[in-house]
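Hi there,

I know you've been waiting on this one. I reran it after we fixed the sequence typo, so this is the corrected version. Both the input and the resulting structure follow.
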Amino acid sequence: MRNHLKQFINGEWVESTGSETHEVINPATEEVIGKISLGTKEDLDKAVAAARAAFPSFSKTTREERVEMLEIIAAEYANRKEEIIDVITEELGSPRSISEKVHYNMGYNHFSEAAKALKNFSFSEDRGDHTVVKESIGVSGLITPWNFPTNQASTKIASAFAAGSPVVLKPAEITPFAAIILTEIFEKVGVPKGAFNLVNGTGETIGDGISSHPDIDFVSFTGSAGVGEKVMKNAAETIKNVALELGGKSPFVMLEDADVEKAAKAAVSHIATNTGQVCSAGTRMIIPSSKKEAFEEAVKKVLPEFPVGDPQDKNYVGPLVSQKQWDTVQSYIQKGIDEGATLIAGGTGKPEGIEKGYFVKPTIFTNVKNDMVIAQEEIFGPVMSIITYETIDEAIEISNDTVYGLAGYVFGEDKETLRKVATSIRAGRIKVNNAELDFAAPFGGYKQSGIGREWGDFGIEEYLEKKAILGYPA
């Protein structure tokens, strides 16, 4: 049992001022694996006061000091590798291979990339008769989601530390233990007191408290569009800066000249990785109508390569994170059936032979129209919609026919067509074929997928204010 009943405030683990606790469930077994304290408004006020007190000195630390701190954090993060993998596998239900290759690695890379970006980051620029300087934005409130417990916390914290911004972190209460390990890492390496504070709790108390707190200067939130809207409204009361990374319904466009089997495998990996609980997943498969039958056969053929089962075993697809999420995904699968889409794999209910755990069947619909609910709303589970097109312009039109714009994917051979589609999709990140992740590339969305960018130097920029100095020699 992982029982963590304290908050981390001003460099110390302290008792919460409240007595309410929250049980954390292993979604693969439905068993309680630990407990956390749910923080109170008083806990949050103490954390914000600690961050505010740390700001004058932390914001004035040198570039070299912050680079060294980030590098030491990355090294200690690597020392905790096996424990991080264990925790994510337990609290999220992520298969061990994904816990390592995705979750652990993304967290590590954000700290190391922030250190690298900071070494060459320009905090001052002479522009004719004036100078522009970039200064720490102040105290930052960070609200992170349950689906990527290390990735989202690490990219926000690394960028904030690089900019000299003290932070207050509220992780998701259903996957809190990865953030607690991060906190232990910061404590061990000697992050200055007050520069990092952790307050566990609910969105209603701690999340709303962060977004509306008068002594927090900037809020970075990752989560649903609905909660993002609430964060913006709360922040507006004190005119604080906001960065939002929200939902997605990303198009995956297969070109006429694409290798169908390779495209099918890449497409299935999108709904299988992290059990489809990925905001940037390419869940709308947009394919040439001439390739429809071949693609359908290819995805059915490749699906067994992504087995569902115990995340401690050699499976690729684990459970959804909670009973609530399971119910939500089931309702969307049923909506797809009711809307008249054709089910060619998966469906409602649990996979055959599995009775315990929030497991679902990876599900593939074809004959999907882009105005169907399953093609427009974020399902956040292993569900693919296959949509056909006749021309490239129609494929682009379908791709952009969504309120979201987080990511897009293009698969094919012709370079001119790849470029045309990639530059025409209105989304914050486009991946051509099987391009590798680049942690220096910006991540964020157009439209209702969010505001601002994370990762690398673009992430650091979010935690900085810009000041123009006129009439003073450089």
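Quick highlight: Residues 156 and 183 are 14 Å apart (CA to CA).

Best,
R. S.
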